C-alpha cells in the first residue's frame, strides 16, 4: 500500500478541511444544543461533490476513490459527527448501494438527486425488536399484482425525518432468516409511511433520527433493489463498506480530541507552568496520538483494498471496531486533559465523547464486529 496521497487526494482533503473549518466546526456546539444541524449544509455538501464521492460521473456523482471518500469523511467527522453521519448514510449506505445493485432506471431516478443533495437517503434495516440479529426482521412486503404492499416499523433511522427515499428491508418470502428478505427504494412521501423523530439522544444530537411506521405502503414492483430474496446481501454489502466510513468518522473525532487536548495543555497553567510540561498530561496526549495514527492506518487499508478490488470485509470490521473504541478513549483522554472545563459544553471534549459513544453501537456493535472477525479467523460462526 502506498501511503503517499496523490495530488487529487491532497486537493480533496484540503477542500474538505477548509469547508469543515469554515462551515461546520464553528457551529457544531450550537447545532448540538439546538438538536439540529442547519439543513442548508446538505446543499453545500452536494455542491462540493461530497454526497457523490465514488459514484460514477454519468449518474451525477463526483467519481473519486475510496481513500478520497475516507479523507473527506475524516474531515467532516473532525468538525461534527452529526454532519458526517448525514453523508455516511445518504451516500455511503444508500447512493453507493443503488449504484452497485440498481437497475439503470433506479440509478437514473435516484443517483443525480442524491449526489447533488437535492434528495437525501436513509437506510431502514433496524426494527424495534431486531437490531444485531437483523436477519430476523419482521416488516413484510406482500406482492399484489404489479406492486408490493409493505407494513411494519423501523427504529433509529439516521436522516429518517429528512430523507426523500428510504432503502428499506422487508420480508417477501416465507423463508426464515436472511433468505426471505428483499430491499426496496421507498419514496418517503408514500401514503401510509409516517415518521417520528427520536429525541433525547446522548450524542449526534444535531442529526435527524427517526422511527418509521409503514401501514400498507404500496410501491411498484420496480422499486425492488437487487433480486428478490437477496435483500440481506444488499444490506450486508452496504454495511461492510459503510464501516469504513464510520471508522473514518472516528478518526476525525480522535483527531479533534488530539487538537483540543494539545491546544488546551499549552494554555492552561498549573503548578507554575503549562500543563503540557507535566509528564502525565503528556501521557494522555501520547495515548490519543497513538490511537489517531493506528485508527487512520487501519481505515486507509480498507480504502486501499476496496479501490484495488480486494476482499475487505474483515478489515472493515477491524477498522470499525478499533477506531470506534479508540475515538471513545481519545475523547475521554481529551476531557481529562481539560479537567473540570472538559465537563462543560463550552469546550469540545464532552461532545466528542458523546458523539463517539454511538460508533461502538451502530452498523454492528463492537461485540458483533468481534464475532465477524472471530468467524473469519476460526472458520466457526458463533452467532
Ligand atoms: P441489540 O442487538 O439488542 O444488542 C444489545 C446488546 O447485546 C449489545 O451490547 C450487543 O452487542 C449485544 N449482543 C447482541 N447479540 C449478541 C451476540 N450474538 N453476541 C454477543 N453480544 C450480542 N439502524 C438502521 O437500520 N439505520 C440507521 O440509519 C441507524 N442509525 C442509528 C443511529 C443511532 C443514533 C443509533 C443509536 C442506532 C442506529 N441504528 C440504525 C440502529 C443500530 O444499528 C442498532 O442500534 C445496532 O445494530 C444494535 O442493535 P440494538 O440497538 O437492537 O441492540
From TrEMBL:
A Pfam family matched in the record: Acyl-CoA_dh_N
UniProt-listed SUPFAM superfamilies: Acyl-CoA dehydrogenase C-terminal domain-like, Acyl-CoA dehydrogenase NM domain-like
GO molecular function annotations of the record: acyl-CoA dehydrogenase activity; flavin adenine dinucleotide binding
Segment forming the signal sequence: none
Keywords: FAD, Flavoprotein, Oxidoreductase
The organism's place on the tree of life at top rank: Bacteria
EC number: 1.3.99.-
Required cofactor(s): FAD
Protein family membership: Belongs to the acyl-CoA dehydrogenase family.
Protein name, entry field: Acyl-CoA dehydrogenase
Organism for this UniProt entry: Streptomyces lavendulae subsp. lavendulae
Amino acid at each position: 500500500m502506498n501511503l503517499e496521497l496523490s495530488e487529487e487526494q491532497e486537493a480533496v482533503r484540503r477542500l474538505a478541511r477548509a469547508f469543515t473549518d469554515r462551515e461546520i466546526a464553528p457551529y457544531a456546539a450550537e447545532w448540538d444544543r439546538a438538536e439540529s444541524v442547519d439543513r442548508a449544509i446538505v446543499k453545500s455538501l452536494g455542491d462540493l461533490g461530497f454526497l457523490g464521492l465514488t459514484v460514477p460521473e454519468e449518474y451525477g456523482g463526483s467519481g473519486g476513490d475510496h481513500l478520497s471518500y475516507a479523507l473527506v469523511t475524516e474531515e467532516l467527522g473532525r468538525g461534527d459527527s452529526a454532519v458526517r453521519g448525514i453523508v455516511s448514510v445518504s451516500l455511503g449506505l444508500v447512493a453507493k448501494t443503488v449504484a452497485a445493485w440498481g437497475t439503470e432506471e433506479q440509478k437514473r431516478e435516484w443517483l443525480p438527486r442524491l449526489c447533488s443533495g437535492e434528495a437525501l437517503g436513509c437506510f431502514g434495516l433496524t426494527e424495534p425488536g431486531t437490531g444485531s440479529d437483523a436477519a430476523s426482521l419482521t416488516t413484510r412486503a406482500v406482492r399484489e399484482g404489479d406492486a408490493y404492499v409493505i407494513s411494519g416499523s423501523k427504529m433509529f433511522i439516521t436522516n429518517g425525518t429528512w430523507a426523500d427515499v428510504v432503502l428499506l428491508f422487508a420480508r417477501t418470502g416465507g423463508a426464515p432468516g436472511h433468505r426471505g428478505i428483499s430491499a426496496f427504494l421507498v419514496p418517503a412521501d408514500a401514503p401510509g409511511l409516517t415518521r417520528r423523530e427520536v429525541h433525547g439522544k446522548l450524542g449526534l444530537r444535531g442529526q435527524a433520527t427517526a422511527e418509521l411506521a409503514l401501514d400498507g405502503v404500496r410501491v411498484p414492483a420496480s422499486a425492488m433493489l437487487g433480486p428478490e430474496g437477496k435483500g440481506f446481501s444488499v444490506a450486508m454489502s452496504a454495511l461492510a463498506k459503510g464501516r469504513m466510513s464510520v471508522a473514518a468518522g472516528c478518526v476525525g473525532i480522535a483527531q479533534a480530541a488530539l487538537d483540543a487536548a494539545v491546544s488546551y495543555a499549552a494554555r492552561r497553567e498549573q503548578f507554575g507552568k503549562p500543563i503540557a510540561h507535566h509528564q502525565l498530561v503528556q501521557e494522555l496526549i501520547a495515548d490519543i496520538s497513538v490511537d489517531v495514527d493506528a485508527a487512520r492506518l487501519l481505515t486507509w487499508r480498507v480504502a486501499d483494498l476496496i479501490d484495488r478490488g480486494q476482499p475487505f470485509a474483515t478489515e472493515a470490521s477491524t477498522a470499525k471496531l478499533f477506531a470506534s473504541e479508540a475515538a471513545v478513549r481519545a475523547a475521554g483522554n481529551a476531557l481529562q486533559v481539560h479537567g473540570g472545563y472538559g465537563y462543560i459544553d463550552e469546550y469540545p471534549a464532552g461532545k466528542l465523547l458523546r458523539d463517539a459513544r454511538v460508533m461502538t453501537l451502530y452498523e454492528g456493535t463492537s461485540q458483533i464486529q468481534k464475532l465477524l472477525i472471530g468467524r473469519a479467523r476460526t472458520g466457526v460462526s458463533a452467532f
